[in-house]
Amino acid sequence: xxxxxxxxxxxxxxxxxxxxxxxxxxxxxxxxxxxxxxxxxxxxxxxxxxxxxxxxxxxxxxxxxxxxxxxxxxxxxxxxxxxxxxxxxxxxxxxxxxxxxxxxxxxxxxxxxxxxxxxxxxxxxxxxxxxxxxxxxxxxxxxxxxxxxxxxxxxxxxxxxxxxxxxxxxxxxxxxxxxxxxxxxxxxxxxxx
Length: 193
What we know:
Organism: Terrabacter terrae
Domain Carboxymuconolactone decarboxylase-like: 50-101
CATH architecture of the largest domain: Up-down Bundle
CATH superfamily of the largest domain: AhpD-like
GO molecular function, one term: peroxidase activity
Keywords: Oxidoreductase, Peroxidase
Strand content: under 5%
Protein name: Peroxidase-related enzyme
Order of helices and strands: HHHHHHHHH
Mean pLDDT: 96
Shape: globular
CATH topology of the largest domain: AhpD-like
Structural class: mainly alpha
């Protein structure tokens, strides 16, 4: 089934070839997850750009924000599914399973969010994320009103737009360079019988 060892279309740098900030991030990731995400390794080819991307990504997705972690991961999976980004669909699907404790819904969101039985608020966010991803020129102020109608405030709206934008960027990088998700993501957030 192909070369499962390859994680990118481009060469992946060794530890001694990356800036110190990158190797520290790899160590933190390994300590937190038990592995270094392949996206961290593959993007480190341009270490300074990777660290700049990571700073903003980390702020939007991993820090306390105006949306919940589950909300942000839902948006990440919807955008990644629409863009058919394998790396982000799998890795953020794992995070969505972890934050919600609901592997079935997370899998359905990755496949077709409309069939996931999402509550009204989450459905509205997913719908907006899809529209902004596929038809950005058609997004209008009325789209924000639909989100306000389900309870999002202005700070949440800004964060939602930023997360959608971040995942569109990240999906394009990951897909264009052929990033392969770590095997660990496939079992994360799933219960075993």
